[in-house]
Amino acid sequence: MTPPIATRLHSLIQLLATPTRRSSNSQSFPLPANAIRHLHPLSFVPERTPDVSGRSTVGLGLPQSLDYQSSTCLYMAMARISKTDYMLWRECPKNAWLKIHKPDTYYASELTEFEKAIIDSGVEVEEVARGLFPGGVLIIGPAEEIRQATQKHLAARTPTLFQPIFERDGFLALLDVLDLNSETNGYSIREIKSSTKPKEEHLHDVAFQTLLVRRCGVKIERIFIVHLNPGYERSGDLDLASLFTTADMTAKVDEIAGTVAREIEEARTYLLNDVEPSGPCSCIYKGRSRHCSTFRYSNPHVPEYSVHDISRIGNSPKKLKEMIDAGVFALENIPTHINLSDIQQAQIRAYNSGETLIKKEAIAGELKKLKFPLYFIDYETYPSAIPLFEKYAPYHHVPFQYSLHIARSPDEEPLHMEFLHTALEDPSKLFVRSLQKNIGSIGSVVVWNKSFESGINEDLARRLPDVLGFIADLNDRIYDLKEIFSKQYYVHKNLWGKVSIKNVLPVLAPHLNYSSLDIQEGGAASITWCKIVSGRLSKEECSHLCEALKKYCGMDSYAMYAIWRALHDMLEA
Ligand code: SF4
Fold first, then answer.
1. 19-28 per-position pLDDT tens digit
2. Given the DSSP bridges, would you call strands 478-480 and 444-447 parallel, antiparallel or unpaired?
3. Which CATH architecture has domain 363-572?
4. Ligand 1: distance of its center to the CA of 291 in Å?
5. What is the pLDDT of residue 13?
6. What is the position in ligand 1's atom list of the atom closest to the CA of 295?
7. Where in the chain is the domain with CATH 3.90.320?
8. Reported pTM
9. Average pLDDT, stretch 176-192?
């Protein structure tokens, strides 16, 4: 079972890729402009739009003010038991029930920019994949119009349909692609996924569609999952045939058809029952990261900071179960016989005693590894599902920005350097040249989460073999400041077992915070970059967003400096 957050995303991805969204002419390759402009649906303007074949469609579009959440609700109001409901029910019946009967609770927490970016990415992939089927007809508009248009197209034997809707016996499914084999008069269902391989849950997704469409009297011969090919590397224009891989799921779908037929009845009975499901929430036995957004609603007796927040407790389900079954939720009530790791015990001790646990010698040992000048650096990237530039594969990160604070000695204020690429072209070369200019051959390169920055560096070296030596040297000199906190050399009650820079900064440098910034996390930075390079904003808007990006990234690198400074001063005191 996938984590609940993925469930929520799955649900949203499915629903947001509905005909109420404006769609584009996805034949205008190569990318990027067309793909990028769909990264944020709020930028869509309602109008009639051409389908990929250039024919007119029934597009009504979204009101400009419609947001992710309300577009989902709007569609739900028209649906009965949709494919998405069924998929969500399979993962958590209770959560699916809440989504239908208590949408205010289900949608109480807003999607983060990161979650929105994932949704947009799924929509973008689907639109690009439609280019695999030239001449296909995209049906858009309100659900009832689409349903009628679907029937008209079936009667007219239209070879390929995008987003037809089928409804039967109170079940509803919207398909990505339905295409006709004119020789056999049978159809194929093709479900487009933004993943790089078919997943277990995709099988039930297409099985639901197949069952429903067959019940509507349509002869379905083959069922496919179309997904991104992780081995594809862009060279010149996008080669759609290589970018996507098609997996034949027909036999597997037939295997589970009986199970799915039983399940959808079960799901309907459960989901259409007006009585709220009672009983315990099974996630009570899982760590915090596995809880969905309705956990608090269903488990009001669990404190905000509970045993579920103990570091890596999700990896020790037996220990967690022992505490839960004994009715222990608060950290102060954990019995001494529970066998917790040193790291977990330190977290609990710090919280219960209110004392900050500091291993000064260990911290001093870590800081001694650093050599001046210290280069505190932070990268911002855009992980595009569709490769935007040469030598990029699906989900390779475009490194569009860095911020660098250079501390030449413990006594000087750091010097600030930065790089921000605002053109719609691969920034790799300019990014590396700028690094070469600003980072000398001696000194430690300090980051927060080494695997990210060093991975980006390796990608840069792969695209630009002439800088291999520079990059290898850079990676050799990288030091991960986060390690001091991951290793629990510094444990504060307010860290709650978390070691992200956003958690550590307010503890060690409370005069600094992200709350006043327009951009407050990396997902928002990615989306902002897309807006800037989309060519759809005014000069003033772009310059405002560039400033916001600079402030955000600048805060990340300065935060590292400030945390190092606080640790350094603490040792000196
Ligand atoms: S927290 Fe409760 S409602 Fe949410 S996924 Fe877990 S069991 Fe389902």
1. 222 222 222 2
2. parallel
3. 2-Layer Sandwich (3.30)
4. 6
5. 37
6. 1
7. 3-269
8. 0.83
9. 97
